[in-house]
Design goal:
alpha+beta, 318 residues, single chain, 11 helices, 7-stranded antiparallel β-sheet
Length: 318
């Protein structure tokens, strides 16, 4: 499993001796930190891994666990925590004890920390969760309380964007601080939009939708920057939006699609030129490997960006 970003905190029973994992997770972490009860479903090996990002006014996390149930008991709900929690299922069907609802893979529904209920599965489970203060979500979606336990269309645009947004927050090691500063607001607004089902959502949802699309877009471009086939048309098609909208989203970042891709490719080439591990590679191979298809264009762009030729940079690196 890849190392999490620095802004992400992780608890895993892998840190504990196997005979102690269940008791330690249940008594120390689940009840004291997560404020949840845990009941294992069988006597098989127990594991629990929770990675989360604390955004001050919201939290989001990924939770992977062996067959078991997690929930808020009647004694735990006396702690005064009445936050809403949106659960997005990433694995086997989950069963909710209070309503009997079944949450299929890819689906989502809203939980209320002020109500006693368990979510569980007899198979290995995996969810994303988004924790939003009650007042915040009710301000954005006044009918949120009526949506507790109701299934959310897994194919809705809002939920697709929300899944991508949470995944990026939890996995992307290159997020800028300003992205994290606004993430809590965007999570709340996207959650409200996912719950709306056509009902009125307060102003801000469009801004959050745009931010989520932009984050998913730039993450995808970074991952594919060294692919010569990466074009404006290709990235627009992959995200189901127009080329003009891609350019508008990149303009929000203060750049254009072309300049953003060029910057990523030049940075990759620069890193490899100064890396001892790539000392034996030809400069042309590094350029083509970074996504350039025209060596003259690479040399001109490199010198314009760094004030030196690729050969000069390599020599200067020793």
């Amino acid at each position: 499993m890849p190392n999490p970003p620095n802004h992400c905190r992780v608890f895993s029973t892998d840190m504990l001796p196997e005979p102690e994992r269940y008791d330690a997770c249940r008594d120390a972490f689940a009840r004291q930190v997560m404020r949840l009860d845990v009941q294992r479903a069988d006597d098989g090996p127990f594991y629990s891994r929770f990675a989360f990002v604390d955004l001050a006014t919201a939290k989001c996390g990924s939770f992977d666990f062996s067959p078991s149930s997690y929930g808020r008991t009647r004694d735990l709900i006396t702690d005064g925590n009445d936050d809403f929690v949106l659960l997005i299922n990433r694995s086997a069907p989950l069963h909710e004890s209070r309503t009997g609802a079944v949450l299929q893979a890819g689906g989502a529904h809203l939980q209320d920390n002020a109500r006693a209920a368990y979510i569980g599965t007899k198979l290995p489970g995996a969810v994303w969760n988004i924790v939003i203060p009650r007042k915040t979500l009710l301000r954005l979606a006044p009918g949120a309380e009526d949506g507790v336990g109701a299934a959310i269309d897994p194919n809705s645009t809002a939920l697709r964007l929300l899944r991508a947004y949470v995944s990026t927050l939890l996995e992307d090691t290159a997020l800028e601080p300003r992205t994290l500063e606004t993430a809590a607001h965007h999570l709340a607004e996207l959650t409200a939009l996912a719950l709306s089902s056509g009902a009125k959502v307060q102003e801000g949802a469009d801004h959050a939708t745009r931010a989520a699309r932009r984050l998913a877009l730039t993450r995808d471009i970074r991952a594919r920057a060294n692919d010569p086939a990466l074009t404006l048309a290709a990235i627009a098609k992959a995200h189901g939006i127009s080329e003009r909208y891609v350019q508008q989203l990149m303009a929000d970042e203060g750049t254009s699609f072309t300049d953003y891709v060029l910057g990523l490719r030049l940075a990759l080439a620069y890193r490899e030129l100064v890396a001892p591990a790539h000392r034996a590679r030809r400069i042309s191979d590094i350029a083509f490997g970074a996504g350039f298809s025209d060596l003259s264009h690479f040399n001109r762009s490199f010198r314009r960006r760094y004030g030196a030729t690729p050969s000069d940079v390599r020599r200067g690196a020793g």
